[in-house]
Every structure is written in C-alpha cells, then in structure tokens.
Design brief:
By secondary structure, the protein is mostly beta strands. It has helices spanning 9-14, 76-82; strands at 3-6, 38-41, 46-48, 53-57, 60-63, 68-74, 85-86, 91-94, 107-111, 118-120, 125-133. 26% of the residues are buried.
Length: 155
C-alpha cells in the first residue's frame, strides 16, 4: 500500500506548523497522468528571502510498503529560477518513517541560493516527491527498528 495521510494536528503544531493552517492541508497529487512527481503544497505562505533557509512542516506523512522510498525534490521551476535546493540535497523518506515518534511528519528544509526573494502562496506547489523501488544486498543484516525522525539511526 502506498498512500499519503495528514499527521495529527498536535504533531503538525509540534513540527512548527500554524494551527490555523491544519484543516486546509492538501495531500500531494500528480498534476498530470504522465507526471512522476507528487506535488507538495505550501500549508501556509512561505517567505524565503535571497540567501536564506526555511523549514516547512508539511503536515504530511506517507505509508508505503517495504522496498519503496519517497525522494523529495524542489519543484524544477523553483530550482531553475531561484536556485532553490533542499538542505539535504534530496529528502529520503523511508517506509519505516511512517511509524516514527513524530508520526513520520515530512519536513522540507530548503535554501534560496539566488539573489531574488521567493514567495510561495499558501496552497501552491513548492516541492515534489517521487516513489522509487530499491534493492538490498544478499547479505544485508539490518535489524534496528526506527523510533525517531531525522538522523535517528545515526545517534
């Protein structure tokens, strides 16, 4: 099963989301039947001055089978015009992140590397996620269980 869900209102607020924006959170969708990426929409206005960084609490989590990963990228038009990039280059959402202590809340931290200010209106697409299959080595022995979010497996 692969499906997007909203996180709880409490988790959205804990992640930095605005309480008033929770009810209007839009689940990611593809714009056309040929699109690979699922557009992520701004839950509230995003103001990103030139050279600055912002973390966006999307209010979204994703349920997916093992063997799949969701890769998050900036929308290509924003990357082209504003040199917008994710601070971790590509966001990798693992299948077991859904059950993390933060409910698998997808956060997107990005930097405007241009010399122009960027403003994304609430409800407009700013990032995209692409589902990918991956493979394991025959001798893989990973057995740890995820409990936390960002960087939790390296702590």
């Amino acid at each position: 099963m692969t499906k997007f869900h909203k996180v709880s209102k409490e988790q959205f607020i804990l992640g930095g989301g605005e309480e008033s924006a929770y009810e209007q959170i839009k689940l990611p969708v593809r714009a056309t039947k040929g699109s690979a990426g699922y557009d992520f929409f701004a839950p509230s206005d995003i103001s990103l001055p030139a050279g600055k960084t912002v973390k966006v609490a999307t209010g979204i989590r994703v349920q997916m089978d093992e063997g799949r990963v969701l890769a998050i990228f900036p929308r290509s038009g924003l990357g082209f015009k504003y040199k917008l990039s994710l601070d971790n280059t590509v966001g990798i959402i693992d299948s077991d992140y859904f059950g993390a202590d933060n409910e698998g809340h997808i956060m997107i931290k990005m930097t405007n590397r241009s010399d122009m200010d960027l403003f994304v209106e609430k409800g407009k697409a700013f990032a995209q996620g692409i589902f990918l299959a991956y493979y394991l080595t025959d001798d893989d022995e990973a057995s740890a269980v995820r409990t936390g979010g960002f960087g939790s497996t390296t702590k």
